[in-house]
Design goal:
This protein is mainly alpha-helical and 496 residues long. It has 20 helices and no strands.
Length: 496
């Protein structure tokens, strides 16, 4: 049902009109501007968070070459995925986003199953991503405490894994409380997060190389390939591929712009803008950060060694060592780590905001257990071992990107002839860009499921394909046994 004017004859928001046309009434407060939508997504992508926490992976698998050129490769294909998503977002600006898109694009026969599988991949990817982000913050806080009390070689406090898990739990509780606040406050925090990420990156890329008494050469930054990974892998191409995980994890989470569309003004235009601008600016800022920090790298084995002051946390050791060698104290380096920690906090906060919107939308259509609870909206407020860590990161990346790729796949196949684009569209290039995006997602899903160490043992096994395989079996089995009898895909909640 289209409602082009309000009771006083004023033209209504185009996103609200489109939402009604899609069969949904406005329940969330539509107060976000395009800047707010971008800010939240940019904070979730957070190059400070992901590059810092996975810098060890980049150094270990290929070093500077893997990080610099791997970033460029990933950026090209990620932008193609983002462009395809932006085109679909313009046509279907709803909080459910990806699973709603799949239902509309797959056609009546396949809509329920397409919606079901896409929604669950999206939910799983968001949960795994949020877990990875907040656990990385807990780990970084532990390293900050370690360095503040003297470092590993100076009798510093080394927290047990149980303490780290407890810190992780506390962070989740704090983020949950924050996300019960009104959308106006969340918008303000998103703006602060975006500003913090941009300013923080440029402070660090200027400060760290300037303070460091030893700097890498241009040749080292652009040509050094580290094949000494201690993982029993000698193939340079294989090592390079494993190193892509840092870049791909960083450039994920931009579906947040989609999940916030029902709270964004003119979402059929501003939703796509949020996706493209957040990815584009993150690409530039992230490349600057990688280069700036890598110019302070001179001894890769030492940075990765568990015997250094930061216990093998490479970024922390770089910051700490740069200040300690220059001034005799690593305090400045610890403050730089605090900058990163605050960025991770904003990233985790935004991630949970996005999670809550996806859970709200999926529950609105009855797909989540206890759906009647999760889809309620407070009318006054808004919805309220390294191998294991890397496996969680891989699960997040693969799950999110599969959820991104499924509606794109349906758009270039089943809906190729009847897709009705919105204000933002790729014109005749939409099919080509869509196919390249889908192929890229298939490729990285295979690559990030490969073993990361040889020989393969219980301790070194990449659990990603096993975990994802079990989840797929569970989701599909639930569909066959139960959900196919009652889940019909997105449900409208407006009266015709």
């Amino acid at each position: 049902m289209t409602i082009p004017f309000d009771n006083e004859g004023a033209s209504l928001d185009s996103g609200l009109v489109r939402l009604h046309e899609l069969g949904y009434k406005q329940e969330l407060k539509r107060e976000l501007s395009v800047i707010s939508n971008f800010a939240l997504t940019f904070s979730i992508i957070s190059v400070l968070t992901c590059i810092s926490t996975l810098y060890n992976t980049g150094l270990n698998y290929g070093g500077p070459v893997s990080m610099v050129y791997g970033w460029l490769v990933v950026c090209i294909f990620t932008m193609l995925v983002a462009l395809s998503m932006a085109e679909i977002c313009s046509a279907y600006p709803t909080s459910g986003g990806l699973y709603f898109w799949s239902a509309k694009l797959a056609g009546p026969q396949w809509a329920p199953f397409a919606s079901w599988i896409t929604g669950w991949f999206n939910i799983i990817g968001q949960w795994a991503g949020t877990t990875s982000i907040n656990f990385s913050l807990a780990q970084l806080l532990q390293v900050i405490i370690l360095l503040s009390t003297g470092g590993k070689n100076g009798g510093g406090y080394v927290a047990s894994k149980y303490v780290v898990i407890a810190i992780h739990g506390g962070i989740l509780v704090i983020h949950g409380v924050i996300n019960s606040l009104p959308i106006s406050i969340l918008s303000l925090l998103a703006h602060l997060g975006a500003i913090w990420n941009v300013v923080g990156v440029f402070v660090l890329i200027i400060l760290i190389p300037s303070v460091a008494t030893e700097r890498a050469s241009v040749k080292f930054v652009f040509t050094e390939f580290n094949s000494d990974n201690g993982a029993g892998i000698n193939s340079k191409s294989y090592i390079f591929v494993l190193g892509l995980l840092m870049s791909q994890f960083t450039l994920a989470g931009y579906d947040a712009s989609v999940h916030m569309t029902e709270e964004t003004k003119r979402s059929d235009i501003n939703g796509p803008k949020g996706i493209i601008s957040s990815v584009g600016i993150s690409i530039v800022v992230g490349f600057c950060y990688i280069l700036g920090i890598t110019f302070a790298v001179t001894d890769i084995p030492y940075l990765l060694s568990e015997d250094n002051d930061a216990g093998g946390y490479a970024i922390a050791q770089i910051f700490y060592m740069s200040f300690k060698k220059r001034y005799g104290s690593g305090f400045g380096g610890i403050m730089c780590l605090v900058i990163v920690a605050i960025a991770i906090f904003f990233c985790g906060m935004g991630s949970i905001t996005s999670n809550s919107r996806m859970a709200y939308a999926f529950s609105r259509d009855g797909a989540m257990p206890l759906s009647s609870l999760w889809h309620q909206v407070n009318k006054e407020e808004s919805l309220g071992s390294m191998v294991a860590f890397q496996a969680t990161v891989s699960i997040a990346v693969i799950s999110l990107y599969v959820a991104y790729a499924l509606p794109i796949f349906f758009r270039v196949t089943l809906a190729a002839k009847h897709f009705q684009p919105g204000p933002f569209n790729l014109s005749r290039y939409g099919i080509i860009v869509g196919w390249v995006a889908v192929i890229w997602v298939v490729l990285i899903s295979v690559l990030f499921s490969l073993p990361v160490s040889y020989p393969i043992t219980i301790e070194t096994l990449n659990y990603t394909p096993i975990a994802l395989g079990c989840l797929i079996i569970l989701i599909v089995s639930y569909w066959i046994i139960s959900a196919r009898h009652w889940f019909k895909g997105p449900l409208t909640n407006t009266e015709n």
